[in-house]
Amino acid sequence: MTSTDQQPFLSVRDLKVHFSTEDGVVKAVDGLTFDLAKGKTLGIVGESGSGKSVTNLTILGLHDRERTAIDGEILLDGKELLTASERELERLRGNKMSMIFQDALASLSPYHTIGRQIGETYRKHTGASKKEARARAIEMLRRVGIPQPDVRVDDYPHQFSGGMRQRAMIAMALVCDPELLIADEPTTALDVTVQAQIMDLLKDLQQEFGTAIIFITHDLGVIADIADDVLVMYGGRCVERGTKKEVLRAPQHPYTWGLLGSMPSLDGPVDVPLSPIPGSPPSLLNPPSGCRFHPRCAFAEKVTDGRCSSEQPLLQVTDGRGAACHLTADQRRDFFADHTATRSH
Amino acid sequence: MSNTNPLLDVTGLTKHFPVMGGFPFKRKIGAVQAVDGLDFQVAEGESLGLVGESGCGKSTTGRLITRLLEPTGGSIKYRGQDITHADRKQLAPVRSEIQMIFQDPYASLNPRQTVGKIVSGPMEINGINPSGGREKRVRELLEIVGLNPEHFNRFPHEFSGGQRQRIGVARALALEPKLIVADEPVSALDVSIQAQVVNLLQELQRDLGIAFLFIAHDLAIVRHFSQRVAVMYLGKIVEIANREDLYGNPRHPYTRALMSAVPEATADDVPARERILLKGDVPSPLNPPSGCRFRTRCWKATEKCATEAPPLVQVSGSNDGHLTACHYPETTETVPAQRLAESPEAAV
């Protein structure tokens, strides 16, 4: 661990991930840049196909190397991951960085006990004996709040409930005290009461170990609960980033406005229809020209010269805050005020 | 409910799925009590929301109402006619008035049929020939749900998830139903698309006067869509009230806990609601707790809760029609109903 003050723990620079398919090249991620410090949580929001999961599989080196063209830089604690060999990555995965997946049942092996699956990672990276690994697995299960961990350690995944499986996955991901944890929609398949438990658990563990977390979700409510910084992705690009407060209170990009307007709240007005985003997410095989959001954007015509359909807006970031949109700052303020006025009475 | 003649009247509705086992002859060794004694009504043109966590029996309820499942007990009356155990022939006219929208738009449309065939299916089965022909009617329906009528001859795979769900809605509308049972109609869709479909359903309810039984786990969407809401837990209704009462003054501890667990997209430093963290998981419906089924996770549970199941009644301090099944209902202090001044939309 040689992370210096100037250098963030995880640094992604202009990442491009393109898959070649029979139908053409899919530009799943197209120029993504972000930093993450230790002990902080970055929330990545986006709809299906926005490139949020691909980004994180690439960080872990879990992409298909044969068919993927990657450009850019991913630095973990100063170490370049994109050029690292498979052996080096194997040493890092599960040890220094690990991942929690959305579907816990599909991600656990049905033929092995929970304890063995948790212990396997530990043994691989520390060379511990079976007995030590079992003790470690019990300790981890206790830490994630599984009752009677010394008994449940010998259970199979099907004997666990959905929430317990997700806890077991978290235990597995954290068994080697990783410094980077990537959580890909870890609570989407869970009920709200269990979701609240899991998020509290992640927050507690982060406080205890100073883990850096990337939290991928499509739910802005979850973001509001757990993230420090937020990155909004659309069509493989980042359209807006900033701290949680900045993005939720004064969003700068029409897509973020659309997301907020699409979500009913528990205490908003009920007699006003929601303001959805028209159309559907773009195909990454053949993305729209210019700004990828322009075919669905209500404000594209407000920009002169039709720049939205011809010129890709750049993400201008100052102090970690920025949005990729051709609208001027004044226009954004006025339009956002109008946009919300129609929603609140 | 003051309405004396509801569209749908459900009393004591029960569904137990037998669990078979044993050797050498399989016999019934237990029953999953999926739905256990539900009472509720749906008035004409009204939307009743049914919320609860997975396994609480809300989908089973929907399937019982549409009679895709045979009830174990209780009764279902549609416009005064008892359809609890009606046979196929008796059901035929009722089924054309009660339609269903399913959760998964990928699984609920036949991939080998064109949109035209899918949407006209219900008319074919019921031998209905609208004036101008079925094709004209299908085009009308596609237009109502916001699809291009020219897409008549396309197949489901050519559409996105949101568009597919619209096809499912068009199919449900084909017979001009009076009641639509919508089982998680938007939960498989992206956030921006969810809002499109919710708005569409809301227009249909308003313009065509269709009643809805709206089944969902998302409390905010149910609040947005339904005038009355019932909260289910382990096969029972724990609380039912109109929207304002239920969300403004939840009386059942479970309703409170459920609401407090919903993360809201606000960046306030002080949370809007006190947060109640429930411990553990929902118990198995195979062997539900005695007395009140929520008592194993309830912070207020006493001896009485273990022995005596609380009836679903109006507790003191509730408005008319607000029923709660709890021995120790929460007090009437109101949850902040409007927080507009602090909401993210208002702060610019």
TrEMBL record, chain A:
Keyword NAD: no
Membrane topology, as annotated: Peripheral membrane protein
Any GO BP: peptide transport
Top-level taxon in the UniProt lineage: Bacteria
Bilayer-spanning residue ranges: none
Cellular localisation: Cell membrane
Gene Ontology CC entries for this record: plasma membrane
Stored SMART domains: AAA (SM00382)
GO molecular function, one term: ATP binding
NCBIfam families, A to Z: oligo_HPY (TIGR01727)
Family classification: Belongs to the ABC transporter superfamily.
Annotated PANTHER family: DIPEPTIDE TRANSPORT ATP-BINDING PROTEIN DPPD, OLIGOPEPTIDE TRANSPORT ATP-BINDING PROTEIN APPD
Name of the protein described by the UniProt record: Peptide ABC transporter ATP-binding protein
The organism of origin for this protein: Streptomyces populi
UniProtKB/TrEMBL annotation, chain B:
Entry annotated with the keyword Cytoplasm: no
Record keywords: ATP-binding, Nucleotide-binding, Transport
Name the record gives this protein: Dipeptide/oligopeptide/nickel ABC transporter ATP-binding protein
GO terms under biological process: peptide transport; transmembrane transport
GO molecular function, one term: ATP hydrolysis activity
Residue span, ABC transporter domain: 8-259
SUPFAM superfamilies: P-loop containing nucleoside triphosphate hydrolases
InterPro entries in the record: AAA+_ATPase, ABC_transp_ATP-bind, ABC_transporter-like_ATP-bd, ABC_transporter-like_CS, Oligopep_ABC_C, P-loop_NTPase
Entry similarity comment: Belongs to the ABC transporter superfamily.
Pfam families linked: ABC_tran, oligo_HPY
Record organism: Streptomyces populi
